[in-house]
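Justification of computing resources. Each target in the renewal requires a structure prediction run like the one illustrated here; the chain below, 593 residues long, is used simply to show the kind of job we budget for.
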Amino acid sequence: MTDTVKIKIDGIEVKLEKNASILDAAKQLNIKIPTLCHHEDLCVAGNCRVCVVEQEGVHNLVPSCSTPALDGMIIHTMTPKVRKARKDLIALLVSEHNTQCTTCYRSKNCELQDLAAEYNIDNEVYLSVLKPSKVDRSSWSIEKDDSKCIRCQRCVRTCAELQHVNALDVAYRGKDMKISTFMDLHMNEVVCVNCGQCIIHCPTGALTERRYYDNIWDAIGDPKKHVIINTAPSVRVALGETLGFPVGTRVTKKMVTALKKIGFDAVLDTDFAADVTILEEGHELLHRLKRVFVDKEKVSLPMITSCSPGWVKFIEHMYPNYLSHLSTCKSPQQMFGALAKTYYAKKKGIDPKDIVSVAGMPCSAKKYEANRPEMKSSGYNDVDAGLTTREIGHMIKETGVDFLSLEETEFDSLMGESSGAGVIFGATGGVMEAALRTVYEVVTGREVPFKNLNITPVRGLKGVKEATIKIENCVPAFSFLEGVELKIAIAHGLINARIVMDQVEKGTSPYHFIEIMACPGGCIGGGGQPIPTNCEIRQKRIDAIYEEDANMPVRKSHEVKEVQELYRDFLKEPLGQKSHHLLHTKYTKRNRY
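Resulting structure tokens:
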């Protein structure tokens, strides 16, 4: 049996793999067929019917996304019948949509708006049947506006297929159908991990991040306030997409310049705190291993990373009995916030009550994390506000700055220096690689045995990655690890987190250390990143992350001078009393329903 089929589209013959769709065939020929419910990350739904085409020998139009390409098919994508059907379908969607597009956050980046313009939709063709609704702003992270929902169900499939959370679902039928939460509860009352994957998969403005930048503008305008921002590694490889650069362009130093022009008093680097995280987390892992191999204690292994707030909330809900496996380390964002209002304030001679600490993140869950009640170890809110990459792009545009022509500027000193290990936190596997670069050297006195420090087994977009590193020729203090084969795993996307956590729950997990990121691809695919986001875009951002790492003068966390000074002058040692108070935390058991 042949594994390929041949069909004709608009008179052009195309050969493609069996089980491919008509839409796949059209993409292969660069023939554009409009879609709304379709997304490369998700299963086929065929809900919206905007992608209909005409198939010779078939009376009704067929949806190209869900119709398999069969040998000998003859397809037409732009006949009068097809065009009229698409135009009617789009007009019907517009008739029940809030068309205040000029004031919509997704204006100029909305798939329905684009199609309405492309097909020249007259909003008087069908009377508006928009139902009154209130915007749900109960969540710290996500806004839900039903008046802009086209019921494509992308968010539902995202939450079920990619994240396995099921916070959103379809309720009612017919004209009453809507996308709802369980019992139509507010977003802050349901099991939602705030990851924001529903936002970046939504084609309209029905789901967006909660926005706080008006408060930040107010703080910048207050001469009594010292406003600082720390920016995550994933922001610098994605921000350019919102400002005219190709996907995967690194704009680190232009970003610093732009943020200074906006009015921030200091532009600092989250990667500094990522390097601190590695020292704390790496020593925590070694401490647990010592308790197992030397003290013969029963210790929660594998140890699991805790820098992804969406993942942390997921385990709090779904696997609350295994919270002891989480590293006690705060995320780099929260470590930075705690240090900003203690160490930074002391060094700069600023009253911490006058510091406004802003975090520029690729993540909507970071907004929730900043408002967790335990995140006040500095005596204040450690982080006062979070901005997504999209919001930073909007703020830069609002200033009228010509981003493309900006000069390049370095991060400010004091919590602005970092390593390549801190940079790769943005990609799935990056935290593990950064940790291994330091832990292996602490244990053996030698660099990790991979060419140019690139630990390739932990890289890539495979859902669950595994590796084993044999530890040999240890320094005397860690002789108990001699000959140990350190088993590690990396998972990204919460459906893959379930795979490794089910092993932990069953007691069959073979690993010592696991990295888990809530979002596909890691932070580069976070819910606060530019839209659209798909597998190809995620890969280009990852490539940019590793390129930045390769060009850094320092590529190991423990070699960063400002980090060394932090410990010498303030924290004293990893896992010490002060670092335990400021940089570590505990987690909360939550209901599954």
